[in-house]
Amino acid sequence: xxxxxxxxxxxxxxxxxxxxxxxxxxxxxxxxxxxxxxxxxxxxxxxxxxxxxxxxxxxxxxxxxxxxxxxxxxxxxxxxxxxxxxxxxxxxxxxxxxxxxxxxxxxxxxxxxxxxxxxxxxxxxxxxxxxxxxxxxxxxxxxxxxxxxxxxxxxxxxxxxxxxxxxxxxxxxxxxxxxxxxxxxxxxxxxxxxxxxxxxxxxxxxxxxxxxxxxxxxxxxxxxxxxxxxxxxxxxxxxxxxxxxxxxxxxxxxxxxxxxxxxxxxxxxxxxxxxx
Length: 276
Hints:
Blueprint lengths: L3 E5 L5 H9 L4 E5 L2 H10 L4 E8 L3 E2 L3 H4 L6 E9 L3 E4 L10 E4 L1 H5 L2 H6 L3 E4 L3 H11 L4 E5 L1 H7 L2 E4 L9 E8 L11 E9 L5 H11 L4 E8 L7 E8 L5 H12 L1 E11 L6
Parallel strand pairs: 1-2, 1-3, 7-8, 7-9
Antiparallel strand pairs: 3-4, 3-11, 5-11, 6-9, 6-10, 12-14, 12-15, 13-14
């Protein structure tokens, strides 16, 4: 596929890396916010949008689940990206020269052991690739950045140390979004993502979930969030294994309808091989 895919952040961000891995033949286009990336796709300025939804270490990405239902976009794919963190510095800098490392607060927290062992003080930056860009612009040998090797390549920085994250399985899950849904069965293992609101009856959530259990449908994610700032209006976001046309999934979704006031399938897409 040719075309353009939007992501949030600076060039060299992990979302940029996800675009290169999942859609290597597309031009990756950076946008300042998630909302900007979504709008670019919705308006037709780009063809797809790459959005991070959760990290194996830090859980869900704030705001994304609330943005998806009203985005007007549909999920057509998922991508699991292994987060490898590198220490980047000006060309010619040695590791012993570095006294401070700048990055997003999440990445700083993922490299505590490395920073402590090398007596490097953490410095909070706006984001990972933006920190690499700032290190290149400030030209201070004592200041390094924690970011991807891709960011080092883009901003002309040397990799002083690689794969320095404390947890070796640190992975971020991304969703590939498009204006049109694609419910075709494109792989042996498919995923379905949907949102729903339960009716105001006793044990509504328990009853709504019962159909998935009795029909042997594996639900891999279930999260809730408030709607419109109300403490009484709650929307649920769910991922399940299977296609809506699978007999057991069809039965479970039919049963879900009895106990919900609103349902919306956000996407049907192949499971990433790295999911397990």
